[in-house]
Structures are given as structure tokens and as C-alpha cells.
Amino acid sequence: MLAVTLVILASIAVGTASERRWGDGAQRAARGALDILIYGLMPVVTFFTVSHVKITAGVGAGLAFGWAERLTVIALAWLIGTRVLRLPRPAVGAMMVCAGVVNTGYLGIPLISALIGGHAVGEAVTYDVAVSAPVLLLVGFGIGAAFGTRAGETPRQRLRAFLVRNPPLVAFVLALVAPHALSPDWARSAAQGAVLALAPLGFFALGVNLMQEQEEGVRVFPPPLTRPVATVLGLRLLVAPGVMVALSALVVAVPTAFRIQAAMSCGINGLAVAHLYGLNLRIVAGAIAWSTAIVLSAAAVVALAGGL
What we know:
Number of domains: 1
Strand order of the largest sheet: 1-2
Radius of gyration: 18 Å
CATH topology: Na+/H+ antiporter like fold
Largest sheet: 2 strands, antiparallel
Structural class: mainly alpha
CATH class: Mainly Alpha
């Protein structure tokens, strides 16, 4: 967990320093890093990971609860953003994406390994692939296409933007129908290793976007805790795990790993969705930064106390 924390902090620091030093050049590099993640890494990782998942009856309820908590907080983000905060569509979409797209992979899996033990990693991976991946590809990209400023004007144009700019979705569908022989174990291991190796690109892009925060021409860091960002933090870190815990207590107990995954921070892939479709980057960057800092701090306290 310490290594993951240091890599995240270092990647963000490089991004912030690059933006201050090179400005537009760093912003172009950040956009390029996000394109690499979307069009290069995500389709490969999706195909070789999804094809290996085996969902048993024992974890099926927990995965259903995971979908329930994601859809609940996404709906609440839409309701609060439109009815209470009365934000424009790109800002509402940003809140919805931040609430639903979660860092259960790069952060959640190693964190669970550190807090619970290696025996829970399989459950953490299953949750990441069966909940987080399809939510990102179907719901997250769909929100971007529906609410973003770069997806067209008509429903047909927005549908086309959803399909054309979503190559990981194609990989996901292929993984469901492809024979197991096309996805050997070594390929899955290599794909998961690529996630760990290239995930710093996303946090580099986050650092660049954080340094674009301006108030009267002066850079602001840490990012402001605005009402939309604070709302997302409440939904992601309190309401989402609360739904999971409540369903687990009322219906059927789910693995501890699932409950932890439900409380993970906003996912760095939300930044990629905002970049692709034109959602409010300020809200997305602020929510990712604050939620990641809170989760890492809480995990450090639990680890120092002896784990779960």
C-alpha cells in the first residue's frame, strides 16, 4: 500500500510541476496520456481480465449490491446536481461520473491485499471486473455522451459518440463470447501488470488538471472543496458504502472485500471520460484528488491500527 501511495503522490507531483513549467505542453501531454489509457491500455486489459472472471452464487449477491450502490449514487448525483445545485449539464454529468466510476482496481486491489490479506485479492478483482468495468464502459461513457459538450447535439450524434469513442466496450463484449484459449493466464497477468505500470499516466494527467485551477489568475492547490465536489465525496465515500452495508445486513452477508471496494475513491478513468466528452474537468479533478486523499488517509490509519 505504501508503494501505491508513493507512486500516486509522485505522479501527481510530476503533473503539477510539469504544468507550472511547460503549461500548454504539459496539457497536451496529459491529453495524450489519457488517450493512451483509453485507446491503448483499457481495451487490452478489459479483454484479458473479463474473460477470466467466474461468478459463483456465493458472490453474486454482493456483485448485485455493488450495482445497486453505484446506480443509487449516480441517480442521487443527478437529482442533487439538477434540482438542488441547478448546475449546467456538463457539471451534472461530471458529478454523476465521479459518483459511479470508482478506483477499485489500481487502488482498491492492493489496498484490500494490505488490509485483509492476499486471500481476498480474488474477490477484489472479481468486484472490479464485474461491477466497476461494466459501470465505466456502459454507464460512465454513456453519461459522458449524454451530458458532455463534445458529443454532438442530437441523440443520434450522442449515441454515435458513445459507440465510436468507447473501444473498451468492444473488448468487453468480445471477452464475453471469446473462447478461453484466446486469453491464457499469462496474458491476464501481463494485462494486470500493465495496469500497474501505466496507471501513473492517469495521475500525471490529474496533476496537470489540478494546476489548471485558477482564481483571479492565481493557481489554487489543493483544489477548492466546492459544493459539487463535497456532494460527490458524500455520495462516494458515505452513501455508497452505506448502501452496500445495509443490503449486506438486511439480505445476505457479502465478503469484506466488497464492502471496502464500495468505499473506494473516485476513479481516475472518470478524468478520461470527462476529457473525451467534454464534462466539467474542474469537478472531476477535484473529486478524484480529495476522495483519493481521504481513502489513503483512512487506509493508513486502519493499517497502523493492525488492519481489519
